[in-house]
Amino acid sequence: MYIQREGQGQQxxxxxxxxxxxxxxxxxxxxxxxxxxxxxxxxxxxxxxxxKINAEEKIIDYIVHLRxxxxxxxxxxxxxxxxxxxxxxxxxxxTKVKINKYKGEFRKVRKxxxxxxxxxxxxxxxxxxxxxxxxxxxxSAGLLLGLFLQLKSIISRGLTNTIYTR
Length: 166
What we know:
2 domains, mainly alpha, about 170 residues
């Protein structure tokens, strides 16, 4: 499926090249969101204007800006992936090794922890029957939300007999 933004015609070929390189709809939405945020950071209106700036300098400034916002290194990496893809699809070479030096070291922003029984009990008390099943299944099996949401497609593909070991 090829996408053309309404009202742009052929004037913003940079956007067209970028957005049509995404294979899935989810990737397309996330990449568009991240590149649009970078576009706003650069105070530009059209995607084609991103090709006329000193990209490496602006990306480095953007990384520093994101680090000052105390974002995790994984979040910064995700945002950069979309920007790198934009420039790659528009035939602009970036010195990624140099740019990545500004990302900093891996830093986890939040601590992961399991829900305690009282928290699960509160959720079950206010949930409807369908949501109770979801909450209890996730709690008893230790499923993360992302895997739980994919569970239906995994079952429909017939992968229920697959055994996973650690």
